[in-house]
Amino acid sequence: MAEAPILVTGGAGFIGSNLVDALLARGYHVRVLDNLSTGKRSNLPQDARVELIVGDVADADCVHRAVDGCRAVVHLAAVASVQASVEDPLGTHRANLIGTLNVCEGMRAAGVRRVVFASSAAVYGNNGEGEAIGEDLPKAPLTPYAADKLASEHYLDFYRRQHGLEPVVFRFFNIYGPRQDPSSPYSGVISIFTERAQKSLPISVFGDGEQTRDFLYVGDLVEVLVQALEAPQVEQGAVNVGLARATSLNQLLQAIGAVLGQLPAISHLPARAGDIRHSRADNSRLLSRYRLPEPPTDIREGLARLLGK
Ligand SMILES: NC(=O)c1ccc[n+]([C@@H]2O[C@H](COP(=O)([O-])OP(=O)(O)OC[C@H]3O[C@@H](n4cnc5c(N)ncnc54)[C@H](O)[C@@H]3O)[C@@H](O)[C@H]2O)c1
User: Residue 79: CB partners within 8 Å, gap ≥ 6?
Assistant: First the structure.
């Protein structure tokens, strides 16, 4: 009998496909459930150990079939655009919350226990701005996207208490790296800046560029996700995933310029209403439970890999 696979929902997307590569490198078999809304078939390698199920996490039957026979689940499938959730709360809710519930129910039915879940720093809203954000900070979800992530965390905790699931909840800050889709204006700022810089297209920065984010390279993130799958036991409580380093957009542009040897024209637009000015993780819980690569990939190195330099 073939080895029981790890199910990666959203496995054809940016983070998911990088995780699939890491799992294959460790000898796992992988099943991907993805509706290919933003993910791409071409993100997945041609490998007999990868099975792709094209389907929707909002479809309970489909999720049950996908979970059946798996050893563990990494639940990444979601409409990852905050703006999409603002424009279509109900549509994104189906993927972002009903999808999580379907995964929990599918796991309960199939007797699968371990699930690693991608929550988001968005659950903190504007709280903690200007300080390192710890997990116990009051939550303030400001968008349907953030509300669904926080509700998903609570449902996973219910299934832990009631049905013995072993959820590992990670709150990602800003993840970047190869295969991040730059096509949406709301996707990661790094993918947008690097694509425009490579094409020598002018770059617009909202505000003065001194806003900061905590950027983590996707290759470092997937190391942590694999450890969470393999840990003999799971500790309770969500875990922030970031480097605890603040990088301003101006520093980011400088670093892109250094890697490429040039930068296109940069202009400044008015700051976007509601944009969070500073976001940085307190990652002490992460470091107490998991190992980041030592040293973690710094922004210049990560950008060089992303830009193929
Ligand atoms: N990239 C970041 O910085 C970041 C930060 C915080 C949280 N996250 C979370 O990490 C996860 C992965 O995000 P990503 O950046 O790789 O985005 P992504 O859009 O590349 O990946 C999401 C994947 O889920 C799939 N998907 C979407 N809706 C689906 C549905 N209803 N059924 C099945 N598949 C569906 C998409 O096709 C895509 O392959 C998401 O849950 C996202 O909310 C990402």
Answer: 37, 85, 91, 92, 95, 96, 145
Give strand pairing partners of 241: 172
> What does pLDDT average to over the chain?
95
The reply to whether 83 and 207 lie within a common domain is no
Q: What digits encode the pLDDT tens for the residues 42-92? A: 999 999 999 999 999 999 999 999 999 999 999 999 999 999 999 999 999
156 and 270 within one domain: no
pTM higher than the cut 0.85: yes
Confidence band (pLDDT; 50, 70, 90) for 5? very high
Tallying the residues shown for the chain, one arrives at 309
The count of other CB atoms within 10 Å of the CB of residue 287 is: 11
Tell me if the bond preceding 293 is cis, omega within 30° of 0: no
Residue nearest to atom 12 of ligand 1 (CA): 76
**Same structural domain for residues 16 and 79?**
yes
Rounded to an integer, the average pLDDT of 137-145 is: 96
Domain that holds residue 189: 180-214+245-281+297-306
Q: Is 155 marked active-site?
A: no
The residue nearest atom 5 of ligand 1, judged by CA position, is 172
Measured from the CA of 43, which atom of ligand 1 is nearest?
A: 39
Q: Which pLDDT belongs to residue 261?
A: 94
CB 76 less than 6 A from any atom of ligand 1 = yes
Are residues 255 and 206 located together in one domain of the fold? yes
| DSSP string covering 231-286 | -SS--SS-EEES-S--EEHHHHHHHHHHHHS----EEEEPPPTT--SB-EE--HHH
> Which listed residue (124, 145, 155, 217) is catalytic?
145
Instruction: Tell me the mean pLDDT in the region 283-308.
Output: 96
Domain presence at residue 290: no
